[in-house]
């Protein structure tokens, strides 16, 4: 558990949650903190360590360090042996309980460190036990939310306003942990949903330490992959996209790391892509087949229909495993993105100037779709529901029309991108919020807790 000697910057311990949609924006946040002079120690288990490589390649070892601890194996038999990264959302409570066993090793590390951290910055899912850890160490814990305020507010209302909610319910415990954290950080900006952040502050917090510091720009190091290996090298994917001379003519389809489509859904989507006549890239997560908890569906999930890849060769590209999504969405040839509407993916689509075609499936996806399609008017609804089988003919028509340039949603999305980029520029709302966050952390180093902005 030894770590390198720290620099003179304010020292913060960060604990990300081991899932792609959580740990990647967490690394982007750490990058911004490091750029502002903080010193950070990142807690990971061995099989999560590779996610840190892009960040570590950009910063000297004097400012960022890793604390690699063995993944606890005693508390949850539901997690298969050797698994340390969550790919199935239904296992989240088991991962939270397992990672809670890092409590004592972290106390030991803290007590023996020559310059221990002044605060902990943890993923929101870990807040129940990390709040207790911080309290025992007499420091503060800040929660980092991968949900935007528009998605967070109804969830907090649901779990904290019900009379029968108790900490025995994992989601109630999580949201109560978030509400009792010393601070809360959002990967969003006030221009998107600042009203909801104010509602969260007024109804669930007794302080003003809430910061919207997004959209966090993804780290782009040279020569270091952001995620993992895929079936097609990134250079080959970009070369394939380069072959299309018409801008915004390619559809990208991707549902993240935790969505697995049934056989009927895969067949309908494949037929729609084929009948649409548009060139496409289809990213398919093949790391897990089905829900390991209920044992249903098994190998039927995320299986490409037989013969499909041969039929669309030259017109479509099917990528299995990790996909360089950011590079794809930023390519001039890509014009639309069929997405589950996870917040990270939605932000990447907006910043990549593609038209969002949203198929919300679970958890925060529905709130994100409401924000983007209904409130902001920058996305088109295609389908909804984890088990819904889309009409292939209608979906083909939507895909075909999505690469044209005459949709009002596309024009509004361009303006929203400008708004988002302005927020993170020097003097923008998110830039100021990030500076304020760092000032609060610097105040802690002097033993002063700042209660107001």
Describe the protein.
This protein is of the alpha/beta class and 453 residues long. It folds into two domains: 11-219 and 422-445, Glycogen Phosphorylase B (Rossmann fold); 234-406, Glycogen Phosphorylase B (Rossmann fold), CATH 3.40.50. It has helices at residues 20-35, 53-56, 92-99, 103-112, 127-137, 149-160, 170-179, 190-204, 234-242, 263-276, 308-311, 325-329, 343-351, 365-375, 392-402, 408-424, 429-445, and strands at 11-15, 39-44, 64-68, 119-123, 140-145, 183-186, 210-212, 250-254, 280-284, 316-320, 334-339, 355-358, 379-381. The strands form two sheets. It has a seven-stranded parallel β-sheet with strand order 3-2-1-4-5-6-7, sandwiched between helices. Strand 11 (334-339), helix 13 and strand 12 form a beta-alpha-beta unit. Helix 6 crosses helix 7. It is globular. It starts with 10 loop residues before the first strand and ends in an 8-residue tail after the last helix. Belongs to the UDP-glycosyltransferase family. Keywords: Glycosyltransferase, Transferase. InterPro entries: UDP_glucos_trans (IPR002213).
Please, how many helices?
17
What is the SS-derived class? alpha/beta
Identify the overall geometry.
globular
Lateral strand order in the biggest sheet = 3-2-1-4-5-6-7
Overall pLDDT confidence: 87
Radius of gyration of CA atoms, rounded to a whole number? 22 Å
Count the strands? 13
């Amino acid at each position: 558990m030894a770590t390198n000697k720290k620099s003179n910057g304010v020292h913060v311990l960060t604990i990300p949650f081991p899932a792609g949609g959580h740990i990647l924006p967490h690394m982007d946040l750490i990058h911004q903190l490091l750029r502002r002079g903080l010193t950070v120690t990142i807690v990971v288990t061995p099989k999560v360590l590779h996610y840190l490589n892009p960040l570590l390649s950009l910063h000297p070892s004097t400012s960022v360090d890793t604390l690699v601890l063995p993944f606890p194996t005693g508390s949850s038999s539901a997690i298969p042996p050797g698994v340390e990264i969550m790919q199935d959302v239904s296992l989240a409570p088991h991962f939270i309980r397992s990672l809670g066993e890092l409590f004592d090793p972290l106390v030991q590390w803290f007590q023996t460190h020559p310059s221990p951290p002044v605060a902990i910055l943890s993923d929101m899912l870990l807040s129940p036990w990390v709040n207790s850890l911080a309290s025992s160490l007499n420091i503060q814990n800040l929660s980092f939310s991968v949900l935007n305020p528009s998605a967070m507010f109804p969830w907090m209302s649901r779990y904290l306003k019900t009379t029968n909610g108790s900490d025995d319910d994992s989601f109630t415990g999580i949201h109560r942990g978030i509400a009792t954290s010393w601070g809360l950080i959002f990967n969003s900006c006030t221009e998107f949903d600042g009203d909801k952040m104010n509602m969260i502050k007024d109804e669930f917090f007794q302080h003003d330490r809430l910061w919207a510091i997004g959209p966090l720009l993804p780290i782009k190091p040279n020569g270091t992959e952001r995620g993992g290996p895929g079936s097609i090298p990134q250079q080959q994917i970009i070369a394939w996209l380069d072959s299309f001379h018409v801008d915004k003519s390619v559809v990208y389809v991707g549902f993240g790391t935790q969505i697995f489509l049934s056989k009927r859904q895969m067949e309908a989507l494949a037929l729609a892509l084929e009948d649409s006549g548009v060139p496409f890239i289809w990213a398919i997560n093949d790391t897990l087949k089905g829900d390991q908890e209920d044992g249903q569906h098994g190998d039927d999930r995320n299986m490409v229909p037989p013969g499909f890849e041969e039929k669309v060769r030259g017109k479509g590209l099917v990528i299995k495993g990790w996909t360089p999504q950011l590079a794809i969405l930023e390519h001039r040839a890509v014009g639309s993105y069929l997405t589950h509407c996870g917040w990270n993916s939605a932000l990447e689509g907006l910043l990549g100037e593609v038209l969002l075609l949203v198929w919300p499936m679970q958890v925060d996806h529905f709130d994100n779709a409401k924000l983007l399609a209904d409130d902001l008017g920058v996305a088109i609804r295609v389908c909804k529901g984890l088990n819904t089988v889309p009409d292939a003919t209608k979906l083909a028509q939507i895909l075909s029309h999505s690469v044209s340039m005459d949709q009002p949603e596309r024009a509004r999305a361009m303006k929203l991108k400008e708004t988002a980029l302005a927020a993170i520029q020097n003097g923008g709302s998110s830039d100021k919020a990030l500076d304020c966050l760092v000032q609060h952390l610097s105040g802690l180093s002097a033993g002063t807790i700042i209660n107001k902005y």
